[in-house]
Structures
1.
Amino acid sequence: ETLDKGLEKSSTSFLSKLTKAVAGKSKVDDTVLDDLEEILVSSDVGVGTTLKIIDRIEKRVSEDKYLGTEELNKILREEIAGLLSETNSGEESEFTIPKNKKPYVIMVVGVNGVGKTTTIGKLANQFKKAGYSVVLGAADTFRAAAIDQLQIWADRVGVPIVKQQMGSDPASVAFDTLQSAVAQNADVVIIDTAGRLHNKVGLMNELTKVKRVMQKVVEDAPHDVMLVLDGSTGQNAFEQAKQFTAATEVTSLAVTKLDGTAKGGVVIGISDEFKIPVKYIGVGEGIEDLQVFNKYEFVDSFFK
Ligand code: GDP
């Protein structure tokens, strides 16, 4: 609902651009395809994924000899849903964690400003509401503000947080957090990490060390390495995905700020290009403004 509101807000929504491109035309021709390509790229779908989509539509045009513009919308939906299906099962709607992992350890990565802390807070809230006990770990020790912000969320949600002073070793904070979680028999641990993109080797070393130290406490931790991306930043989000996936094995995505932007296309491009499922989407600043990603709902709102 909130997502619909966000994506509808702008008159530059995907659907309105598409409608304009096919106005007065009865069939899909080269001009329509060119326009479509431009619209997809400008909606942040990404060049690689855009070309893939155009290619498939071209194929259908040549197979059927004729493709009416009225059918284009339906076909595009199918193609986009198909692309998303490759990585996103899309059946989930609840905030749940696997039963056989306790504590279930989520390591959260992403650069400053993308909404990492907010997403952790919202997620902790949802897990708590779902009946899980949650422990937060403030292993983004580079900025004092990051630790303070996480503390504010921990208080707001009412979950324990493990932290040290600013500048302390992130791996040491992660270690303490897991030990504390195990001692409390907690269900979920969410660890905030690496907020800065220093050079690639630096990032890789830092994340590798945090992981290795966590495994001293919980053998197969982390169970999920979640990259948070700001959905309103288009190319930057792609660039960050590239850097983080090169530095560590990212297993899920949370895409924030999909309210107030017509650029939800980044979700399509990034999940296709990096073959990583989008687990959560942020649709506002409030504590409830986090949704489990559902590809059907997403496609519906993209075409609204
Ligand atoms: P961090 O530096 O990555 O930890 O970012 P923060 O969590 O502090 O968030 C940065 C800003 O983005 C804050 O003003 C948040 O309220 C805002 N923010 C986070 N997620 C969302 C979202 O889904 N939608 C909107 N509109 N704002 C968000």
2.
Amino acid sequence: MADTDDSRETHQYHPEKPQKTEGFFLKGSGSLDWGMKNRLARIFNPDSGRTVMLAIDHGYFQGPTSGLERVDISIVPLIPYADTLMLTRGILRTVIPASTPKSIVLRVSGGTSILKELSNEGLAVDIEEAVRLNVCAMAVQVFVGGEHERESILNMTKMVDIGTRYGMPTLAVTAVGKDMKRDARYFRLATRICAELGAHYIKTYYVEEGFETVTASCPVPIVMAGGKKIPEFDALTMASKACQEGAAGVDMGRNIFQSDHPIAMIQAVRAVVHRNETPERAFALYEELGRKE
Ligand code: R5P
């Protein structure tokens, strides 16, 4: 009977051992609910605290951009080397094997094309769809200083409110207008606004001068956006510097899938992000693996 004084049962309660209360490894995320933390822990590796997100969502406003003409052929072989895929629901449903154990970050803002003003986005996916697709976060573009600044910021806050009801994190993606200056001052402004208004983590570009002030003044994790294709060594150097200066990893697209050796490149990026490998050693790894591709 349960209420008899059985010494063996008493022993199983381990009253001498206090229950461990786990802290949470991600900056600014300690007060989030369990589901939110669990999703973030599927995006960010709890051991390194960082992530290699593979961004392949460009088609949502650019169509079949170079390297993404056939996602089934160019991207699916890269999946084993990514921590997370960032993409649209269209590509997820049509091309990405549902058997993948990788976490998904779903692009949820959209409604524009390269033929018109890009900042005029709305919310293009609802929360039930994100839950149905079992994704780990929703990504919203935020155009601080852009023509539709207000609408894009409010798109993000709406997803933060809706996502919070479901334990679904929101990734704010800072988009910079063509004529705007990309410097630490701008990125401090843009990332801090996103964090203050509730984004759970933020994707932003690297800048040579003062990137550490961008990460320091942002109370949630920052992942570095890749940007246009540059030589592999330069891209690895940029990713390395970003991580050393406080980024919690990268969200890279073209510098991986437009590389001559994408499988080698994503592994070299992983070495920099998760193992703090130097750019020189990571580039040597890229060359060595590239010869086998
Ligand atoms: C652009 O708005 C998309 O969010 C891409 O995911 C982003 O630009 C990252 O890709 P890339 O490293 O090619 O710049």
